[in-house]
Amino acid sequence: MAKLSKKKFKELNDELSLKRNNVWEEAKPVQRKEIMALGDKYKTFLDQAKTERMAVQAIKKAARRKGFRQLKPGATGKRFYLEFKGKLIALAVLGRRPLDNGMRLLGAHIDAPRLDLKMHPLYEEQELVYLKTHYYGGIKKYQWLARPLAIHGVVVTAEGKKVEVHLGDGPDDPVFSVLDLLPHLSRRSQGQKKLNEAVEAERMNLLLGTLPLDAGEAAGKVKLAILQELNKRFGIKENDLISAELELVPAGAARDVGLDRSMVGGYGQDDRASAFGALEAILDVKDPAVTSVALFFDKEEIGSEGATSAQSRFVEHLTALLLQAAGQEADYLSISRTLAASQMLSADVNAAYDPDYPEVHEKRNAAYLGYGVCLTKYTGHGGKYAASDADAEYVAWLRGVWDKAKVIWQAAGMGKIDEGGGGTIAKHLAVYGMDIIDVGPPMLSMHSPFEISHKADIYSSVQAYLAFYQAPPMKGGNRGVL
Ligand code: MN
Ligand code: MN
User: Fold this and answer.
1) According to the model, what pLDDT value does residue 386 have?
2) What is the band of 43 on the pLDDT scale with cuts at 50, 70, 90?
3) How far is residue 138 from each of residues 52, 196, 211, 300, 302, measured CA to CA in Å?
């Protein structure tokens, strides 16, 4: 065989080899402006959606502004929302095609790792008053010490009065903090322990106040002063904290990161980055062929357990109501047929390659910051345990959709096989027989109080989600008999 010239080699290489594209480099000037503007919008969303309840409110408000109305029996129209227990919400736009030919669903989660409160949280020690916490989801405990925290949530009294609490994010609000030990004295008690044992959950208590009541030698006079203040502000008593959901989250707004402002830093981007993308996409959907749905789930970070999670029956109920709204039968067979014929993206973030820790990544199959929304064919750990594994037919269809829409995207797994792993909501929806795959922006410092995303990847995810909604019906979709 004749030796290939450099030119021929390049031609052959361009034709046959896979090329990764940097979103910013490929973007036209007008798109670069759009990327930056979207970044600002995204930061605003993060600030409004610091808890799952706040996220539901922000999503509902945005949807109502765009003409979405509450989905209920007998509802008419095309654009609906369905909210459940204030922690789970779905938006839907009815398509032209019969619903039982399948829907297009995006599913993100709006819960994020945080500190919750225990049922009896309030106590006084050495005239310092604290709240006892219980962490929620996968946190590295040391990251939550010695930083400003805000409190968001609800307290519900036995009389049924619901009090909203938002403290620490207003411009004049005080903030709160879980203390850490000074380095001078922590050599043994922390320094000689393993990282994940150095901070004990029972020491993660939130400092709430120090000023006593004018009560001489009386014990508990600071705690009583705090209770008096809580009563004055919110009309609650100590036992009302038993029926409360107060969440401690990093205080402060999401910020631009980097001298070039290319990134967004802030709390809760897993998975409010994808929630934002899904929201932007569905608000933009107009008269789709296939019914478009965006689902915003709670409780993903603790394994999708419970009434407001992806394992709940919510999706079946939603499908039944949508079938009715579309004037179709809503019996069991129609619901199961609709779901089995559907395509879904589990909109969730992936770990971006971190050059300081190359040993945990497999660089040929890692996601890279700035290289667009990331498709993850399968999740799970070890030998694909607890995985959701999308089939080749579906992945192929999706590639075609994005290539046609000129979306810049990448395919990646998460980390080295033996290093760890994780799951998403995908496996809980896959049981309906629908096509489902994970698609979301890559993230640095994931699960930390200050996660970092790339504005171009947020932009790419909105494009990818919108292209998914607007793609024509999948040929040979529902590759079974359901
Ligand atoms: Mn997630
Ligand atoms: Mn997560």
Assistant:
1) 87
2) very high
3) 16, 12, 34, 11, 8
Question: Which domains occur in the chain, in start order?
Answer: 19-112+267-470 (3.40.630.10), 115-250 (2.30.250.10)
Summarised one tens digit per residue, pLDDT across range 44-55 is: 999 999 999 999
Return d(Cα 52, Cα 482) in angstroms, integer.
34
The β-bridge partners of 128 are 125
Is 34 buried (19+), middle (13-18) or exposed (0-12) by CB count in 10 A? middle
Q: What is the DSSP letter of 225?
A: H
**Cα 270 to middle of ligand 1, angstroms:** 5
Q: How far is the CA of 9 from the centre of ligand 1 (A)?
A: 42
Distance CA(462)–CA(355), nearest Å, equals: 26
pLDDT digits (tens, 9 = 90+) for 351-405: 999 999 999 999 999 999 999 999 999 988 888 888 899 999 999 999 999 999 9
Nearest ligand (C-alpha, residue 273): 1
- pLDDT value at residue 46: 98
With a CB cutoff of 8 Å and minimum separation 6, the contacts of 476 are 393
Q: Give CA–CA dist 297/108, Å, rounded.
A: 6
Report pTM: 0.97
Please tell me the distance between residue 173's alpha carbon and the centre of ligand 2 in angstroms: 29
At 69-86, the pLDDT tens digits run: 999 998 999 999 999 999
**String of DSSP letters for 408-420:** -EEE---S-GGG-
DSSP characters over 310-366 = TTSSHHHHHHHHHHHHTT---SHHHHHHHHHT-EEEE---EEBP-TT-GGG--GGG-
* CA 320/CA 330 separation, integer angstroms: 5
Q: How far is the CA of 327 from the centre of ligand 1 (A)?
A: 35
Q: Ligand 1 center to residue 318 CA distance, Å?
A: 22
Contact 122, 147 (CB under 8 A): no
Tell how far the Cα of 271 is from the centroid of ligand 1, in angstroms: 5
Cβ pair 177, 251 in contact under 8 A: no
Kindly give the interhelix angle for 52-65 and 269-284, rounded to the nearest 10 degrees: 10
